[in-house]
Known about the structure:
heterodimer; A: alpha+beta; Glutaredoxin; 2 domains; 7 helices; elongated; B: 527 residues; alpha/beta; Rossmann fold; 4 domains; 5-stranded mixed beta sheet; globular
Amino acid sequence: MNPTPASVTQAVLARHADEPGALLPILHEVQDALGHIPREVLPQIADGLNLSRAEVHGVVTYYHHFRAEAPGRHVIQVCRAEACQAMGADALMAHAEQVLGCPTRGGHGSTGADGRYTLNPVYCLGLCASSPAVVVDDKLHARMTPAKFDKVVAKLGADA
Amino acid sequence: MSAVTVYVPRDSAALAVGADEVAGALQAECVRRGLALNLVRNGSRGMFWLETLVEVATPQGRVAYGPVEPDDVPGLLDAGLLAGGPHALYHGLTEQLPYLAKQERLTFARMGITDPLSIDDYEVHEGYAGLRAALALAPDAIVQQVLDSGLRGRGGAAFPTGIKWKTVAAAPAAQKYIVCNADEGDSGTFSDRMTMEGDPFLLVEGMTIAAMAVAATRGYVYIRSEYPDAIATMNEAIARATAAGYLGDDVLGSGRAFHLQVRKAAGAYVCGEETAMLESIEGKRGIVRTKPPLPAIEGLFGQPTVINNVISFASVPLILARGAAFYRDYGVGRSRGTLPMQLAGNVKHGGLVEKAFGVTLRELMFDFGGGSATGRPIKTAQVGGPLGTYLPESQWDLPLDYEAYAAVGAVVGHGGIVVHDDLADLSKLARYAMEFCAIESCGKCTPCRIGSTRGVEVIDKIIAPPSSPNASKTNKPQQVQLLRDLCDTMLHGSLCAMGGMTPYPVLSALNHFPQDFGLMTPDREAA
């Protein structure tokens, strides 16, 4: 039987019971376990830390890394920062949007209608001397080109 | 035959171009051929165009091959890789490569040489000499060494590190904290990442020395979520240092405690601002605090807190090990010591260049960088991250130090240099600077929160093609003046550097590259 969001959250809260300022580590662990931070666990986290639901909601929505919705089966991040722009990141992002069917606007990513891919802009991966850089499901790729991007995505398609 | 030692980096910039696959191919092929191999996963030398850089230990020294792809491995072994034999990817002795030989690596002395997670390797290469020296000193004598070294904060603000430590040392409190700001969000910078992935004990040692100096017993390393490899390596290094008695209740038998832990950030650029970072560690939204009180007096959880950047802490062990004078003898004017600079973007030989202050941008971009990656003329470089200025060619011969850059309104920042070729459109980059500020603003102060969005709109009006309906409604000189007024408000009215420095890239683009904004004459006259 799959653990429920409530039981996962309970275990995470128990692990951080005595830690000062533990909200971020807790949210990270919940998201790592569930893929996102479902709305239903916010009251539980608030109770556990003696915070208001508004405070927890505020933190979840403030940080770009936390997501309230389940992502697609594959998450692709394309760096948009200056060092990557200097090596063609804008064109690469446009290519990725088209290939994956996920438009991005104003710093926000999106998930395609079929739920296969989520495309997010990211602002610096620290690979600025090997730009442009991309992350595909936690794997880093540097010196990326549209042609190489298509190959990486095609590989995903094989085991999706 | 005894096993030959071969080094394949584990730095994430090497992993991103297939270092794990190269290491795997090398191991498999050596097994198949019955060759004895001692594979070490080192940090990166910081010559990223050569990654994956494979090094082989020979009696003459370490020999370099790169960039190596997994498919190259059989051919390299055929050519006698394990004996340092010649091959198309052969570069000779690593230490003699001009890119490395011309540097002054103090903070990065071990980078790429050692196994990052081996404490023994770290000790053999002068590791923990600084902490041992510090433990023999009174706390105020440690602070004095850091003061005398002239070390200034390497995160960007360049505040004297010793003064910060002195303030915390003098603040009475039962609990004090050491916090490392490893939220390295500036595009074009990766020296913090390299340090955490390639020489993590150096940061642990530097923070421990700070703890001894100010009597703090707890520390946090706040690392960006975009750096999963750095987080994993730091966690492992802290666990090993604790197990070996370098951290914990009794640091090296001194009877003094220091406990260190990693806090993972969550993708908010503004959390690189120190008070926003403190809020984040406390489990809140990363909103900037007003100062005073200074964090040195009322910092994390309201207690006195030393906050320094990774490179600031990493500079300290050598200062204690070799003395303040040794470090201070590098550099120029009031910029003492060395700065690990990062060459990035459109540059042929991008990587880590540690030099004493005083080197010029031209030397960095051409003598080290080899010109642009695309082979086109270089148009400009942005120095100091997304909040740094774009420097035109007339400023490429300035000595790179805090004062000389400040004199022309530029900043050294965290030492990131992003190179752009002549195809770069500075009006787009200026627009991006405003857009980035709008995305990342914490929202506490109006100039930053609203000003950045208005900035994007005004730049859109300035650069709209004459045929567009948007352009016909506007008077370009008026819009340029509006942009300048807006930048003035942001510069002087913002709570922190996020809004306060976003005008730096915008105004430098406008002043030095007016033609990119469709201003044929210098815009001051046009306006």
